[in-house]
Specification:
By secondary structure, the protein is an alpha+beta fold. The chain has 2 domains: about 5-75, Pdz3 Domain (Roll), CATH 2.30.42; about 85-320, Alpha-Beta Complex (2-enoyl-CoA Hydratase, Chain A, domain 1), CATH 3.90.226.10. The protein is about 20% helix and about 25% strand. The strands form 4 sheets. A 6-stranded mixed sheet has the order 6-7-8-11-12-15, with helices on both faces. A hairpin with a 5-residue loop joins strand 13 (about 220-225) and strand 14. Helix 4 runs parallel beside helix 6. The longest helix has 15 residues, at about 105-115.
């Protein structure tokens, strides 16, 4: 919720909302003609849910559009599939939409299926698509990064007291051994947050992957839930995330090695950007680092052929594009 209005962080892939054209940053102002002002989030969500196949009208306020937009959505079963994959020629594309408990298992199965389809011949490269992935389980982010790393830190957390600090490391295993010589590109954008930034930052710092796209969201804090007894609980920020090279993710995000912007339709230009953590009131500042409140694009075309970031990554692996950042070179 933002000032009493439901804000869309990122529509889930292949859902009625995503297919209808609802975008990140859209504000849901009414559901079936009833204003959400004054509702708590759970009530608004309950009102949007309903029997399979029935319809619900969602009224959206979109920045830069003078009049509200109405979307008629048909309720459907939302398949919470964390990982999807496809082959673009000899390049494997793994789309990881969220870091649910199925994230690592999904990546593991996708790699297995890719090799099975190719009769154990490695792909020319792998693109790990983390765009508009809002995060999820920290443990899952460590497992996913570990799939591509032999050893070393994945993420560091630091709090005010030693008990709130930790280091999560990658371990040698059969999966990273299988993928050792396979080039890797990671796609990020303004909707990549939290666990997505942990993975992108770790692979970038270890020179395992080239990161392509636009700057990520900058959600680099650890929240703990503290019980207040039978009447409730409090969520308190207790630590910050740091990449292996000691870079704070908080309010800064991950900067891509190669910035590639999408060609945004005229009706969405200026409204395709999401303001990251640094643009939120009361955010935790990072001493000694200049923060930015400039938005980062979250727009991803539905048509792969029009997806500038994806197509650039494919050409980079295929050799149609060259850049000093690819392949990454160990220092």
């Amino acid at each position: 919720m933002e000032e009493g209005i439901v804000k869309v962080v990122s529509p889930i892939d292949d859902t009625p909302a995503a297919k209808a054209g609802i975008l990140a940053n859209d504000l849901i102002v009414a559901i079936d003609g009833v204003s959400v002002q004054g509702m708590v989030l759970d009530d608004a969500v309950a009102k949007m849910r309903g029997p399979l196949g029935t319809s619900v009208k969602i009224t959206i306020a979109r920045e830069g559009v003078p009049d509200p937009l109405d979307f008629e959505l048909t309720r459907a079963t939302i398949a919470m599939r964390a990982v999807r994959w496809s082959m673009e020629g000899d390049v494997a594309v793994l789309r990881l939409s969220r870091f649910s408990e199925q994230a690592f298992v999904g990546v593991q199965q996708a790699i297995k299926d890719i090799y099975a389809e190719r009769k154990d011949v490695a792909p020319k490269g792998i693109i790990l698509d983390l765009r508009n992935n809002p995060g999820g389980s920290v443990d899952q982010s460590v497992y996913v990064a570990d799939a591509f790393l032999k050893q070393g830190a994945v993420v560091l957390t630091r709090g005010r007291v030693p008990e709130e600090s930790a280091r999560y490391d990658a371990q040698p295993d059969a999966l990273d051994a299988q993928l050792t010589d396979v080039p890797l590109v990671v796609l990020i954008n303004g909707g990549s947050a939290s666990a997505s930034e942990i993975v992108a930052g770790a692979l970038q710092d270890h020179k395992r992957a080239t990161v392509v796209g636009t700057r990520s969201f900058g959600k680099g804090s650890v929240q703990s839930i503290i019980s207040l007894g039978p009447d409730g609980a409090m969520r308190l920020t207790t630590a910050r995330y740091y990449t292996p090279n000691n870079r704070s993710i908080r309010a800064l995000g991950i900067t891509p090695d190669i910035e590639i912007k999408q060609t945004v339709p005229p009706e969405l230009q200026g409204r395709d950007e999401i303001i990251g953590e640094a643009g939120l009131a009361g955010h935790i500042t990072v001493e000694g680092r200049e923060e930015t409140t400039v938005g980062s694009s979250v727009y991803v075309p539905a048509d792969k052929a029009e997806d500038a970031q994806l197509q650039y990554a494919i050409r980079l692996i295929d050799g149609g594009e060259t850049n000093v950042a690819y392949p990454p070179k160990a220092e």
